[in-house]
Amino acid sequence: MSKTLRIGLLGLGVVGGGVVQVLAKEKEKLQKQTGVAISIDKVLVRPGEDKSALAKKYGFVLTTDFEDIVTDTNLDIIIELIGKVHPAKEFIEKALQNGKHVVTANKDLIAQHGVALNQLAKENRVSLFYEASVAGGIPILRTLTNNYLADEITDVMGIVNGTTNYMLTKMFENQLSYQIALEQAQALGFAESDPTNDVDGIDAAYKMVILAQFAYGMDVSMSDLEIEGIRSLTKTDVQAAQALGYEIKLIGRAKKYGQGIAVSVGPTLVDKYHPIASIKNEFNGIFIESSGIHQSMFYGPGAGALPTATSVLSDVVAIAKNKYLGIEPPLFNHFKVDTTLASDLEQIDSYYIALKVNDLAKVQAIFTEQAINIKKEHQQSDGWFVICEPIAKATLKELTPKLSTYAKIERVMKVIGE
User: What residues are annotated to the active site?
Assistant: First the structure.
């Protein structure tokens, strides 16, 4: 049995360069731990891209043709780090069909096509691993697969997008507007020139699709999610939240209600004493509630060359260990049950409601008639900001048209920490 694992790397950008760097630094340690020598032999780069200095320094061959890699019988693993869905999807499909293990950090691709790609990996008796696709350097997927095997998860929620968390931190701590916070994030490289995927919650939603698969064994699609970003948040929202003792975070959540789940992304009021509230700037954090362990939180960098590269290499190490032990290549996630989405009647949560009020007495009377108890409230000028005790999502939907005669609903957000 060969004790060498040879890698073909697709993409030599920030993360790809990090993988090369980390592997070179830890190569001897990894061989001692796995019994397998791991090397990057061939790297795919874009035409016209000069990476010859890196190739010479680290001893790998450069190519601009994917076929040079996928048809190379000496290569065992393909690491895909080119990003986006196409042509990454086609590259990964062909690699799996050619009997090569695949490691990727491509959350967009896995969220949308992961089910089919995992099936293809199974059919070709190879592994498809993607630990780095969620929360960068936080080892959350393998933790869910291994450490929660004997536990029942009831809630997975957290900050899984560093760009928006940086922006919200600055909006709260420095009283910046959304636009100024975005410009700062872009200047520091935390936000792209087109920040749509981040600020509209799409990036976080992709990650929550994957987390729902690992936590509950259910395959939800993006159309099953309720997704809202942070574009419309104002200083008034920030001030009202602070007055009530909360922060606002963009929270991704996959929560179990009875036998079904609801997966969402949206700005959320988080009690300032809740562990999630302590996560600042570009960092990520995932908070898990379960019947056995009860509560735990995983915190760390959500992106960056070295954290993400380290996560990618954790998948490579898992493949190396399986190769050394002669283990049949496993699926990354074995947990699979029928997908059941919770109804609006089953989804019971506490809500924050911001109202611009014409007749406060009549608005208060509507809450009383609907048997909705107000736990906290704050008033300023013509604004009334309330946190209600847990109600069904269906009740909230019924409340909205009843209030419209006497008030304008400015904002509705879920509340964590009640």
Answer: 207
